[in-house]
Amino acid sequence: MSGMHAENFCQTRKDLEGWGCFCGGAAHDAVSGDAADLVRMAEAGIICEPGNPHKLVEAVNELYHMTQAQRTAIGKAGQDIYNKYLSFEKGVENFERICLETSQL
Fold first, then answer.
1. What is the tens place of the pLDDT at every residue in 8-53?
2. Which of 18, 48, 77, 88 yields a CA-CA distance of 20 to 30 A from 28?
3. Structural domain span for residue 36
4. Going by DSSP bridges, is the β-strand pair 26-29/45-47 parallel, antiparallel, or unpaired?
5. Considering its fold, how many domains does the chain have in total?
6. Contact 18, 35 (CB under 8 A)
7. What are phi and psi of 45, to 5 degrees?
8. Is residue 24 a contact partner of residue 68, using CB atoms and an 8 Å limit?
9. 64: exposed, middle or buried (C-beta count within 10 Å: 0-12, 13-18, 19+)?
């Protein structure tokens, strides 16, 4: 991967939208805003600017050059944050809580 060129990796901006790569449990996302903040907060991956194939290649290369232990650690952090806040079960719990709170107004 060390000689990868951005032009060969992603041909269009659309290729980058919402793109994620899982490498030994570690994640890379070309996102911004709340999604990027969550990944940063959880130390669960590497973020790069959406629509910038050069930054995407840099981020993938950074993952590639990490040790297996580093990739496993950020992968576990991502799984933990998902289970804590983003899983289907958590979504249902939050929806139920909001409905109960709203019905008591």
1. 444 434 443 333 444 434 555 566 677 788 888 888 888 888 888 8
2. 88
3. 10-77
4. parallel
5. 1
6. no
7. 165, -170
8. yes
9. middle
